[in-house]
Request: fold
Amino acid sequence: MNNFLDGKVVFITGGAKNLGRAMALEFAKCNVNIAINSRTNSQDLEQTLEMISKAGGNSIACVGDIINRLEVDQMVEKIQQAFGRIDILINNAVTHATEPFLELSYNDWRQTIDVTLDGSFHCTQAVVPLMIQGGGGSIINMGGMFGHMPVPNRSPSSAAKAGLAGLTRALALEFAKYNINVNYLAPGPANTQRDPSKPFQFDLSKIPLGRFTEASEVVNMVMLLSGKEGRFITGQSIHVNGGVFMNN
Reply:
């Protein structure tokens, strides 16, 4: 896998911490050039860039809002100027509204849909021409279990993630002729840093393997789908969640 990925370029949205950071650090080990998107120039972003550098990787920051097409185009242009190409796109940025549906504001609903679906639309549409020019690529849409199983007070995420799964299948068909594979990855509840104002509680008894997902387990699947061994996998929704999907 390492030789196949050597010198390639990955663009990770929402990549300043958690799974985005973990993916970036693994790509750094494979001599992949890394573009990390964050909506703001945060301390998390600076720490991630420093960690990539210490790991021997080459990276740039792409600060911008993925729901703003102008800013997306500017980020893609920056990546092209820095590295000359984009081979892998990981639509990882996410936001969650956690209110009961009848208490949900339209703004909170819209924000979740905008980041998950519209952001993926803008980034994919901006990046794919470069992938075609480079002879192919990989797109990984980071979904989640909310798109496939009911969870109270998470209706915007359920709608957005289900839409992202559908978009994945449609684009896998449309882009196959360009040697671009498109897949949807659905992690389970993960051991990652969470916003204290939006606590997430999950009953471990619903997970057949009895524990939360580790970031490394998600990263391993990302690397497979991005690498040579994953080139014949496309249009799939892949669950890395300890079997929780089977229980719902």
In short: The chain has one domain: 2-247.
